[in-house]
Amino acid sequence: MITNTDSKLSVVKQCELLSVTRGKFYYVPVGFSDQDLDILGKLDELYTENPTYGTRRMKAALKKRHGIMVGRHKIRRYMAINIEQLRCSKTTK
Fold this sequence. Notes:
This protein is mainly alpha-helical. It has helices at 11-18, 22-26, 34-49, 55-66, 72-83. It has two domains: 1-30, no CATH class; 34-83.
């Protein structure tokens, strides 16, 4: 699609013609680290035991059971990733 070598059109012009921002062209997705995946697995385990836990209780449970110190806001991001997959969707008629 877009090439930045051996082209008569600049990357800016190619992106403009394809209606793609240059940020999307240069973006390289970053995966999760091993530590993040470990925390996500432990949060998943805690959530399946107690789905009513919020971020503060999850933080306390992670510290108590596994000795992991993680901030509440990071737990909230992890829960948004992990728990959204587990939630049941409303059925509409």
